[in-house]
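BUG-722 | component: ligand-complex export | severity: low

The export step for 2-acetamido-2-deoxy-beta-D-glucopyranose jobs runs without errors, but we want the raw record kept on the ticket for reference. Input record follows.
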Amino acid sequence: MDSRNLIRFLFFTFVIALLLLLTFTNLPAYTEELLDCPTSSRWCATKNRFIKQPQPPKTTTTNLHTSDEPHHPLDPLTLNEFNTIRSILLSHTLFKNSNTYALHSVVLEEPDKYLVLKWKHGDDLPRRKASVIARVNGETHVFTVDISTGVVTPVDVGQHSGYPTMTIEDMTSSTWAPLGNPEFNRTIMARGIDLKDLACLPISLGWFGKKEENRRLIKVQCYSMEGTANFYMRPIEGLTVVLDMDTKYVVEIVDKGKNIPIPKAAGTDYRLSAQNHQINLVNPISIEQPKGPSFVIEHDHLVKWANWEFHLKSDPRAGVVVSRAMVRDPITGEKRSVMYKGFTSELFVPYMDPTDAWYFKTYMDAGEYGFGLQAMPLDPLNDCPRNAYYMDGVFAAGDGKPYIRSNMVCVFERYAGDIGWRHSESPITGMEIREVRPKVTLVVRMAASVANYDYIVDWEFQTDGLIRVKVGLSGILMVKGTSYVNMNQVNQVDNLHGTLLSENVIGVIHDHYITFYLDMDIDGPENSFVKVNLKRETTASGESPRLSYLKTVRNVAKSEKDAQVKLKLYDPSEYHIINPSKMTRVGNPVGYKLVPGGTAASLLDLDDPPQKRGAFTNNQIWVTPYNKSEEWAGGLFTYQSQGDDTLAVWSERDRPIENKDIVMWYTLGFHHVPCQEDFPIMPTVSSSFDLKPVNFYESNPILNIPPNVEKDLPVCNAASSA
Ligand SMILES: *[C@@H]1O[C@H](CO)[C@@H](O)[C@H](O)[C@H]1NC(C)=O
Ligand SMILES: *[C@@H]1O[C@H](CO)[C@@H](O)[C@H](O)[C@H]1NC(C)=O
């Protein structure tokens, strides 16, 4: 091999490894049968990369899903159904006569809500249909495919800006494409980077006007992998390639970072194998369930635990979808509806640096990248405890062929040492009472790695009826290269747009917004949204020794604009979803309330193009009338969208929402000012919100549960107290 060929060989080896790392980390989950993968292929060689640990018994046999069948109206498409849909589409004239096509989304078209509500176990399933978003010869099409009849019906979704979610193939090929351009190669080499060390990322470029219209564009930025697996910490700062995603034509190469060094590799690697010593801070710890778990998952999707039952599935765009969540009433024993459907509708992640290589970084991770597509296999014993059950995702690739994302979701019971309720009497009363109940919950978890960042989403169910939705952020910062190595060189700190984390590395300030779709159906679809405002009242002079006190004022939202809520600490409200036609024994409407936790609001200018596209974050709470086609807060076609199809636009119609089937939207926000502890990888930061019963039950629903006793817990011994 002459040296040129050697370089070429090394280059390909690295690029393939890199592409695997960036976009195909799911590949270990593919089975050879599905992928037709020759065993000599490097893709297959990486198959076991994730299986570092012995898997718990439930997951040792790989489920090929070949015999999956739908059992519930909301069950996701099966492997066989995907194959049927593919052959239906390929024999359709539009596809047969096309030069190019790609399927950007193939998911179950859920039956109408009334059909799902009417359906009982044992009934025939409603007709199985798929909703397909395809690009054929450069045009976007939406179809309904009837799986049993093979009929393909075009769906009119109206005229909107934007393109469908990228396919994995779009992302992969975009990272390759610049290498076809000699100027790109020259630019990389001029920056002192060996082409074999190159790692590139496909970065959605938002929309800022004419330049981003009428063609699918993407920006590519690159890093050096030399000496580290954490190439994100070694940006080739200032270099941006604009690429036409359909033709792979390089539209523009801009390098404004020629004087900015590539940060060093030392200290950036986070892998255990790269650490020269290991510190064991705690002894091994695990939850034991001597009698086994208390939940069952029927046909892989219907979860039954304690007093809860819900349907659970994975989704390429939303990640996980929780549907038909019902809780048993302790008095009547009936299953009562709480939520028809809940999921992560969109994420919005704007970076706070207006300069050339950064201004466009305003990601929408669900609509642009597919939050579920980026959900990686969970790591047993570390992502989820030993007692976890794992669920796979089955999705379609751009060519319509199905593939399996193994261990994408886990379900487990959690006992975190917390207290469900308690009371003990003080000796003053002479009564020896100490009643305490432990809190055990059920957690549904997924973790998405959207390139550098990792999002952990938990749906946690409590026996007292509360649902806690928690988002954890971890992974690796998107950093900026700089010539500064110490803060004493920086004159104007606010021009850094972030924090100097290490020599030549700035962690850029950014926000994260995660918008949840919450179709609450409290004892039925017809509900109202009530703001229970806490108001200070002042007493009349001489009325009371008190000058002021609080009282509640209930405001039932009549139409959408009444339900656009900005949270305020000094003008607080509770946010109730009630069923106005169902009262408790003493006459309160049954309901659930949304309880926001720590959160953040977007401070961007409302006319800033990213904020227009992300206008669903203009309020923390919105309520809309149920509409099957309004599920994606950033619009159906988010990629390069202009903000003409967002939740904010729908809500402006101000439709009536009182005593109607309504959907609540809540946005959980984080401002992230990076700090040195976030380098080279971030300890998890979490925030959550609760959906909590409010006069839903007649009284405490877990009064009758027993406490823990020693004999039921044979495994663990408490440490001898000092
Ligand atoms: C750029 O470099 C890569 C790696 O050496 C090579 O495969 C590719 O052909 C080069 N592109 C051009 C246009 O020369
Ligand atoms: C349902 O949503 C779609 C998309 O926003 C809209 O075009 C349609 O008018 C809505 N229907 C109603 C009844 O609001």
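Assignee comment: Attached the raw record above. The pocket of 2-acetamido-2-deoxy-beta-D-glucopyranose (ligand 2) is lined by residues 158, 627, 629-630, 650, 655 (CB under 6 Å).
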